[in-house]
Write a structure and sequence with these properties.
Oligomer: single chain
Shape: elongated
Number of strands: 18
Structural class: alpha+beta
Helix content: 40-55%
Distance between the termini: 52 Å
Radius of gyration: 27 Å
Strand order of the largest sheet: 1-11-12-13-16-10-9-4
Number of helices: 13
């Protein structure tokens, strides 16, 4: 959520930021009008309260002195009615302003590339080389079917399009990857592991920015007004909703594994085949809470925690800075990590590492004190997938395939998986 003081003090900058995010800059005018009316009415109501308190003392004193108090009592009654009307109007203005702020995206950071769509994104760096083969590399859906580890047809049969089943070594490989990633983050990178609920309430979804704008993309349990999580970012970030953290404990780092549920499966074309775009997938998510002045340093750190996993797996990847027009609703800056899938011949996003600054913290009311007794400030929140499955498995299968259709796994996974290869 944007700070109304930012809108009030820097309206042109906010208009420019909204335009860069492809949002309507005219919302600033409505916000300023609401804010001006709300502040005027607040001042008026405060003055009425002062006068009514004054009358509450004056009326008894004059009555005791034998004076006529009818006019004063009428004034007090009239002020009471005006106060009631003003408070009702003020409540409506606050609600309208709050709702409008909830629907406005975060403002891009000044270092985010300016642009309209993904073609304006900028590649920051690349690691490794595209693998070369002396045979025609196969796609993961062909490899998975031949090895008996991926069943698309039965996934669609039991749940519908956009769902899949991992079998045997495929299920074991996913489990090995999750365990390896979680242990790396908790043992080497200083994260605390969280096992969160996979169903959350409406305030929780609102706190991280999924609601109200993107409700139609979420899976909702109507009877209880609960939502299946689209990412572990949602419950983990909201662990501290409504809390004031001890500044001495920052940064707070959490890592969580969860399934993720998304109604919108994505675009058409080559990416629809296989398990590239699905309604349910699993992911290890990193979340950080930091001091404002440390958040962009933390952004680089978090991104590094994700890229080092890719390097340990020997996967060719690139880091892409998203342009303003391609940033998510809540992000001020984001690096996408894209891995090369040689069978598909495509770059696949496997992680988005985002800095939300204080945008989510304002929505969820997550604050900290620098020192005991200091005024609370909003933390900055960050998150990134490290890493998302199944695209990680796509890249592994297609990169590590052999001419006979077997998969030779990276050495780092041998002990976790319990074998060096997956064979027919």
């Amino acid at each position: 959520m944007l700070d109304i003081r930012l809108v009030r003090d820097n309206p042109e900058a906010v208009r420019a930021g909204l335009s860069a995010k492809k949002a309507d800059p005219a919302a600033v005018d409505r916000l300023l009008a609401l804010d001006a009316e709300r502040r005027r009415l607040t001042t008026e109501t405060d003055e009425q309260k002062r006068r009514k308190n004054e009358l509450s003392r004056e009326i008894p004193a004059r009555a005791k002195a034998g004076e006529d108090i009818a006019a004063l009592k009428e004034e007090s009654r009239r002020i009471g009615e005006q106060m009631k009307e003003g408070e009702e109007r003020l409540k409506a203005l606050n609600a309208e302003q709050h709702d409008l702020l909830l629907r406005l995206p975060n403002i891009p950071h000044e270092t985010a590339p300016r642009g309209i769509c993904e073609t304006d994104n900028q590649t920051v760096r690349t690691w490794g080389e595209k693998p070369a083969y002396d045979f025609q590399p196969r796609t993961h859906w062909d490899l998975g079917a031949a090895l008996g580890i991926l069943d698309l047809e039965r996934g669609a049969k039991i749940s519908g399009s956009g769902f899949y089943v991992l079998k045997g070594a495929g299920a074991r490989l996913e489990r090995a990857l999750v365990a390896w990633m979680l242990d790396t983050h908790t043992r080497a990178n200083g994260y605390t592991e969280i096992a969160p609920p996979f169903v959350v309430n409406r305030p929780t979804m609102t706190g991280t920015g999924q609601l109200p704008k993107m409700e139609e993309d979420m899976y909702r349990i109507d009877e209880e007004d609960l939502f299946l999580i689209p990412t572990a970012e949602v419950p983990v970030t909201n662990l501290h909703a409504g809390e004031i953290l001890d500044g001495a404990q920052l940064p707070v780092r959490y890592a969580a594994f969860s399934p993720c549920f998304r109604r919108e499966a994505g675009s058409y074309g080559k990416e629809v085949r296989g398990i590239t775009r699905v309604h349910q997938f699993t992911k290890v998510e990193l979340v950080q809470f930091t001091r404002p002045e440390k958040s962009y340093e933390a952004h680089e750190e978090l991104t590094g925690h994700a890229t080092r996993l890719l390097e340990a797996l020997g996967l060719h990847y690139r880091v892409v800075a998203l342009c303003t027009g391609d940033l998510s609703f809540a992000a001020a800056k984001c690096f996408d990590l894209e891995i090369w899938a040689p069978g598909m011949g495509l770059w696949l996003e496997v992680s988005s590492c985002s800095n939300f600054e204080d945008f989510q913290a304002r929505r969820a009311n997550i604050r900290f004190r620098r020192e005991s007794g200091d005024k609370p400030e909003f933390v900055h929140t960050l998150n990134g997938s490290a890493l998302a499955l199944p695209r990680l498995m796509i890249a592994l299968l297609e990169t590590c395939q052999q001419a006979d259709g077997s998969i030779v796994l990276p050495p780092v996974l041998h002990s976790w998986f319990g074998a060096e290869r997956i064979g027919p």
